[in-house]
Amino acid sequence: MEASVSRRDAQHFRSPRSSLGDLDAEVAGRLIAAAADVALILDGEGVIQDVAFGNEELSREGYGTWLGRPWVETVTVESRPKIEELLDGAASAEPPRWRQVNHPSAHGADVPVRYSTIQVTESGRVVAVGRDLRSMAALQQRLVDAQQAMEREYARLREAEARYRLMFQIASEAVLIVDALTQRIVEANPAATALLEGAGRQITDHGLSELFHAGDAALINSTIAQARALGRTGEVQARLANGERPISVAGSFFRQDNNAYILVRMTAAVDGAAEGTGPRARVPSVMESVPDGFVVTDPDGSILLANAAFLELAQLASEEQARGQSLDRWLGRPGLDLSVMSANLRQHGTVRLFGTTLRGEHGAAVQVEISAVSVPDPAQPCFGFVIRNVARRLPAETRPVRELPRSMDQLTDLVGRVPLKDLVRETTDVIERLCIEAALELTGDNRASAAEVLGLSRQSLYVKLRRYGLGDLESEAEI
Question: How far apart are CA 385 and CA 327, in angstroms?
Answer without folding.
Answer: 10
